[in-house]
Amino acid sequence: MVNRLRRSLLLAAPAALVLRPFAAAAQGPLRIEITQGVIEPLPFAAPPFLPDSPAAADLANQITQVVIDDLTGTGLFRQIPPSAFIGKVTNFDAPVQFADWKAINAQALITGAVGVAGDKATVRFRLWDVFAQAGLGDGLQFQGPTASWRRLGHKVADAVYSRLTGEGGYFDSKVAYIAESGPKNARRKQVALMDYDGFNARTLTDGNALVVTPQISIKARQILYTSYELGSPRIFVMNVDGSGRHVLDQDAGMSFAPEFSPDGTRVVYSVSEGTGSDIVISGLGGGGRKQLTKSASIDTAPSFSPDGSQIVFESDRSGSQQIYMMSASGGEPKRISFGEGRYATPVWSPRGDLIAFTKIVGGRFHIGAMRLDGSNEQLLTASYIDEGPTWAPNGRVLMFFRESPGESGGPQIYTVDVTGRNLRQVRTGGYASDPSWSGLLG
Question: Is pLDDT at 441 greater than 80 in this prediction?
């Protein structure tokens, strides 16, 4: 598995990340090509962003650190520590002294400046190919509330990541999850929301009723979740600030395992009647309800394809938990999992090329991924319990939760690269489970 640098013309940053170019710079050739794995991360230097005034000094340092943390957290990039720097950046608009950065083997250089006007902050930055002595694309400028300085840092990191890899970023995103507290036999669970890296976390439900499997919409505007506050499991929908909470489908009995369609207008979920459960699709307001499966089996955990035309789900119709695929308008499901063990919680990649899943085999739980026809199955993790994968907006990283055994054990959220590398725990400040990753916030 190889991760190599190649010399080629840089692709322009995606328009969704560009708020405003402020200066033209020569396009350079540096690009990191992600093929399968990584031999050595790309070394980069990120001198502290320069404050345009004394009032911006702390903010400039904080935003710089967010950019560094985002990039190094991918496992694809390695920060050269400031103690190794030969030169300094003292003027954002001054020519770069490339020899100083080449001497410490920095292949990419990030320079920036931060200004504050009232409650607004402005970040300007440039990305440089040190060895080609050229800028990588135009310089960019992002602006937002000073209180949202972490998000400004994430947006800078997304633009850098995109230019160096040719892929979309994933840092400026949100994750819905279940925050858990209390003893194992009386765990309090609340729907919560956080940044992708665990910061800015807040709970959205009061914890008086059991809640599970939250699902955030791609644009991070609404959250679906299953609650037992009415006695039996029912699906609720609410805005990401916790307002507007209501039952999704008043006519459904026991309903659970919901997921938004890519455009946010439909919901696919499970409805249980008798001993089995079926897959149902409806509008976000519960109207236009259509039953997609009808059998005595347990059909659950549905997930839309990126274009909304197909659904993948788990079912025990063959005698054990397996993964099936069908049209979002209904029809005969097709089984795609045929390996040893049981398969659960399938999730379609935003790229459309892979299905992530939970696999239980030999008394161990795994997070894995396979192609749409079930081929090229790869197990990325192994543990006592690993469950509930969810994809990063760019399809490069999976987030899931891992349960530790014993009376004092509990769930924690982790991320892992789709190659199986770079397993990292997400800071949540307590037990956490059932993550659901949004798309980029834009």
Answer: yes
Q: What distances in angstroms separate CA 182 from CA 25, 194, 225, 402, 430, one per listed residue?
A: 55, 20, 21, 17, 10
Q: Are strands 77-79 and 42-45 parallel, antiparallel or unpaired?
A: parallel
Give me the pLDDT at residue 39, please: 63
Query: What is the per-residue pLDDT across 288-341, written as a single tens digit (0 to 9) for each?
Result: 899 999 989 999 999 999 999 999 999 999 999 999 999 999 999 999 999 999
Instruction: Give how far Cα 117 sits from Cα of 51, 65, 143, 151, 288, Å.
Output: 12, 21, 10, 17, 49
Q: Which residues pair with 70 in a beta bridge?
A: none
Provide the whole-model pTM.
0.92
Question: Looking at residue 7, what is its pLDDT?
Answer: 24
Q: H or E element: which one contains 280?
A: strand 276-283
Q: How far apart are CA 275 and CA 272, in angstroms?
A: 7
Helices (H), 359-412: none
Q: Residue 338, Cβ neighbours under 10 Å: how many?
A: 13
For CA atoms 70, 106, 34, 421, give the dihedral sign: negative
In this prediction, residue 250 carries a pLDDT of 82
Q: Which residues pair with 303 in a beta bridge?
A: 312
The DSSP string of 11-47 is PPPPGGG-SEEEE------EEEEESS--SSPEEEE-P
Q: Which residues, including other chains, have CB under 8 Å from residue 52's CB and lie 6 or more apart? A: 113, 114, 115, 116, 122
Cβ atoms of 213 and 228 closer than 8 Å: no
pLDDT at 35: 57
Q: How many CA atoms lie within 13 A of 166 on its CB side?
A: 14
Contact 164, 32 (CB under 8 A): yes
β-strand 290-291 against 299-304: which pairing, if any?
Answer: unpaired
Q: How many C-beta neighbours within 10 Å does residue 290 have?
A: 14
pLDDT tens profile 406-438: 888 999 999 999 999 999 999 999 999 999 999
